Amino acid sequence: MHRRAAFVLAIAACLSPLSAAAQSWPARTVTLVVPFAAGGGTDAIGRVIAEKLSARLGQPVVVENKAGAASAIGTAYVAKAAPDGYTLLMTTNSALVILPLIQPAGSLNYDRNDFSLIGLTGILPNILIVSPKVPANSTAELIAYAKERPGQLSFASSGAGTITHLIGELFKARTGIDVVHVPYKTGVQAAPDVMEGRVQYIFDNIIWSLPQIRAGKLKGLAITTKQRSPLAPDIPTVAESGVPGFEGITWLGLAAPAKTPDAIVARLDTELRAVLAEPEVVAKLAATGAEPPTAPGPAGMRALLGEDIARWQGILGEGKIKLQ
Question: Rounded to whole angstroms, how far apart are CA atoms 73 and 96?
Fold first, then answer.
């Protein structure tokens, strides 16, 4: 009995610093890493979440953009950060679904298991955005225009290996068109080239693109979700536009390095749920086109992650998508 008691006390002594740290967290600034350049959809939502978490946690939550390699650089940075709750990640399905599926084994400096999932922050529809200089005013017209010019048109993305790249490749495979992929760091950076017709179209999130569409600087032909967006009910879905079953969403979520104390993850889950329920946040996210998560918390995020992995594994398994 004495030996067992001593063993229990030893374990408790080892765990007590972690418990104490969790109870006093946060005692200083928390960094929220956005693995994309400033100005994009992930950055916009990350800043809304950071501002509101700051108020609820009583400590600054600052956004740090660590762009590059289709979000792999910022994602790997957080994966290797201390699991103390002071470095968080605004992640997307580009980082946790697409890159692990398309990159050679061991080539990424992180793994899905390197993260503690906290909760989804939003689901974004993407829009098929076309240059005003392209004489196509519907998805069917764009497909016909591309088929008449095999190899002559190009589509942009927010980076090779991102969800917007894969959506573009899926569109190419489903429609049988021959177009060239041109990667950028964000859709915002691609916009001038799409506007001028140097690149003919892009699939990107609704946040930055809809104002440009409304201003007549770009043409929005179709939405990539199953249903039309309440923010743009006049824009049909891609599936409605002659590509049956087509879907390609971007989802965003909050994560921390693996082995972050359960108490900190639980606190972040609680505060994130409260933030997402604030009327001001609901309005801001709705204004960006983001749909609220239907299943909150770590369990909801794990479920969507699993569904998305299975879906894209199936699509890639068809062998019709050829990545450069």
Answer: 13
Q: Which residues are CB-contacts of 212 (< 8 A; sequence separation ≥ 6)? A: 129, 191, 195, 218
Over residues 190-217, the pLDDT tens digits come to 989 999 999 999 998 887 788 889 999 9
Domains and CATH numbers, the chain: 28-123+250-317 (3.40.190.150), 126-223 (3.40.190.10)
State which amino acid sits at residue 201: Y
Helices (H), the chain: 2-24, 41-57, 72-79, 93, 99-102, 139-147, 163-175, 187-196, 206-214, 262-277, 279-288, 297-317
pLDDT tens readout for residues 31-65: 999 999 888 888 989 999 999 999 999 999 999 99
CA-closest candidate to residue 132, choices 215, 65, 211: 215
The conformational region for residue 84 under phi > 0 = left, psi -120 to 50 = alpha, else beta, is alpha
Q: What is the DSSP letter of 242?
A: T
